[in-house]
Design brief:
single chain, Immunoglobulin-like, four-stranded antiparallel sheet
Length: about 100
Amino acid sequence: MRTRFPLAVPLVAAVLVLMVGCSDDDPITPASGVGTIVVDPAPDDIAAPWTLRGPAEQLRNGTADQALTDLMTGDYTLTWRAVTGYTTPAAETRTLAAG
């Protein structure tokens, strides 16, 4: 199952957060109840820094494009950190669902 979650970002062309839930019938899935979140800010040349907070106080910090695998299902909040010359968008919460 693939779901796209676009974020409209002033002065940052486009930001997409892709959350993929996994199911038991997917042979490459380590277990049900986990999924992958792909953070893909644009434009790529700014290497936008971000923080992702999830269930059980999981916290990931990163910059630019990253795929975060084997994450437990639940609500995740993506917060963008400052980039000189760009307006920082509001934090956004999405749900990563199994299957």
